[in-house]
Amino acid sequence: MALSARNQLRGTVKSIVLGSVMAEVVVDVAGFEVVAAITRHSVEALHLKAGDEVAAVIKATEVMIMK
Amino acid sequence: MALSARNQLRGTVKSIVLGSVMAEVVVDVAGFEVVAAITRHSVEALHLKAGDEVAAVIKATEVMIMK
Amino acid sequence: MALSARNQLRGTVKSIVLGSVMAEVVVDVAGFEVVAAITRHSVEALHLKAGDEVAAVIKATEVMIMK
Amino acid sequence: MALSARNQLRGTVKSIVLGSVMAEVVVDVAGFEVVAAITRHSVEALHLKAGDEVAAVIKATEVMIMK
Amino acid sequence: MALSARNQLRGTVKSIVLGSVMAEVVVDVAGFEVVAAITRHSVEALHLKAGDEVAAVIKATEVMIMK
Amino acid sequence: MALSARNQLRGTVKSIVLGSVMAEVVVDVAGFEVVAAITRHSVEALHLKAGDEVAAVIKATEVMIMK
């Protein structure tokens, strides 16, 4: 299945910090870091761990431009 | 000033499509495209145009992980 | 592939309104309507049309509670 | 008062997990689960508990389509 | 009913620009402007017009800090 | 540098609650409170503390209207 989200950046999970509700996942994308704050439940449901091949997915309406 | 948003990806504006309220800005970041849907007013206020050096800025809570 | 977004509601596309940059997609999910504002480009890339079987996907951090 | 958010799904609170800052609220909506990550403070301010009749509220710009 | 969104800033609608799908609503809140990009449909459903007493509502997870 | 986010409300940090992953920052803006849920990491990276002069920054697509 395909997702409408315009930004899907492939990379590798570098580190994960688990809180009780939220988790922070750092993904290495072509040498720079992309950080995701998702629920801890999602980390567990996807069995996410350092080294996993993933994509960081971002809806276009969530992206700002700094100039 | 520094912004709390964890993701600030530097790149170059590749194209802009203007609607009456919204605008779509495509940024080339290290060879891949990042797409932003921002207000037309912001495009005009920043005088955004193709070729501009910018950063695509994304709050960590807006990033999902696909595995 | 699996997505970290916790909410994935299956339904059928009921109607689509296209703007120049954005589009509004109404999905019938078990008899009630879910409305998505996505880019027109995504509607075209997914070849979305009324009657399509889809899922409305929502990150948990975007859901509020009204009581 | 009425809210501009297009998606207001009525249901019943099924479970709540409290973290120190965030909380996860699962709502049963017509037999399927909708998950919200809101602040712990909001859970306390609304006196949310399992069994409460609520609505899960989502702005249309936060909804993606998967096909 | 009460909403979990932590930020509810009362003000007066100053101007509205309608696109085909989206609309931009500027609200005067205690002398400064808050801008909302909502669907055109919501503007029509709420019969929003300049001069209306409203609240600009923002979920805490959508607020960033610049220092 | 300038940011496309339309809402940048200047104020003073009133309080901070730190969780393991997320943090809640309350900003006093002209006498009313604006609440931000950002990552703990961002609070530490910005050395945020009560009394700091900051701006609460919000993308227009994240603002709803209640009437």
Topology (elements, then pairings):
The structure is a homohexamer of 67-residue chains.
Chain A: E1 7-18, E2 22-29, E3 32-39, H1 40-45, E4 53-58, E5 64-66
Antiparallel strand pairs in A: 1-2, 1-4, 2-3
CATH hierarchy class name of chain A: Mainly Beta
Number of E strands of chain A: 5
What do the pLDDT scores of chain A average to? Answer: 97
Structural class of chain A: mainly beta
CATH topology of chain A: OB fold (Dihydrolipoamide Acetyltransferase, E2P)
CATH architecture of chain A: Beta Barrel
- The fraction of residues assigned to DSSP E strands of chain A is over 45%
Low-confidence stretches of chain A: none
Instruction: Round the Cα radius of gyration of chain A to an integer and report it.
Output: 12 Å
- Please tell me the total number of domains of chain A: 1
Largest sheet of chain A: 4 strands, antiparallel
* Cα distance spanning the termini of chain A: 35 Å
Major sheet strand order of chain A: 3-2-1-4
Oligomer: homohexamer
What sort of overall outline of chain A do the alpha carbons produce when their principal axes are compared? globular
Largest interface: A-B, 37 and 37 residues
**Fourth-level CATH superfamily of chain A:** RNA polymerase II/Efflux pump adaptor protein, barrel-sandwich hybrid domain
